[in-house]
Specification:
The chain is of the alpha/beta class. It is built from 6 helices and 8 strands; from the N terminus they run ββαβαββαβαβαβα.
């Protein structure tokens, strides 16, 4: 769908420069999604691996974030092999609803309650990032905990449009449940993609 060089704005890798590769197509359809234009893959022309690598080379990026939509709707093996051949670190952002393809240095699973993630994907997660839109999302976050590995980083992130309402609830929740950490879409405050 789009490619751009920016700064990671959320989760464990916040603040790091990365080339973002947003893949079109998503069947999860969160009502609060801030990239709804990514849902229909047919609206976005196919991009070759050569085009991706040429664009990446323009920035000299050493890290790529593969996101969506839902990137694991597609087989990512060839893309990851090509990036690895150029010593690029590869980060994945997924809802965890599809099986893994490709090889990654970091996997962020952001499960959505309308489509439960696969347990095998939760077990692979380096980072579990739950978007908090309403209070029941805390219970949803906890439901996913039994399946992640012990060293998985746990984040609660307010949904952007409800940031001011959810922020105090998240702070209170983390103070009572200190295994969780706070994530914020800092790129939105910086007004960058």
């Amino acid at each position: 769908m789009e490619m751009f060089y920016s700064i990671q704005g959320e989760g464990y890798n916040t603040g790091k420069a990365a080339f973002f590769l947003r893949i079109g197509g998503c069947d999860v359809g969160c009502h609060w999604c801030d990239v709804k234009e990514s849902w229909d893959a047919s609206l976005h022309p196919l991009t070759t691996l050569d085009e991706i690598m040429d664009r990446l080379a323009l920035f000299g990026a050493t890290a790529v974030v593969i996101t969506g939509g839902e990137p694991l709707m597609y087989n990512l093996d060839a893309l990851c092999q090509r990036l690895r051949a150029h010593n690029i670190r590869i980060f994945l952002e997924t809802s965890g609803t599809f099986p893994l393809s490709g090889s990654f240095d970091w996997i962020c699973v952001s499960p959505k309650s309308q489509f439960s993630p696969r347990r095998d994907m939760l077990q692979l997660a380096d980072e579990l990032k739950v978007i908090v839109y309403e209070e029941q999302d805390f219970a949803w976050a906890e439901q996913n905990l039994p399946w992640v590995k012990e060293k998985c980083r746990l984040y609660l992130q307010p949904e952007w449009s409800r940031y001011s309402k959810m922020l105090p609830l998240i702070v209170d929740y983390i103070l009572k449940n200190p295994r969780w950490m706070f994530s914020l879409q800092s790129h939105k405050f910086m007004n960058i993609p």
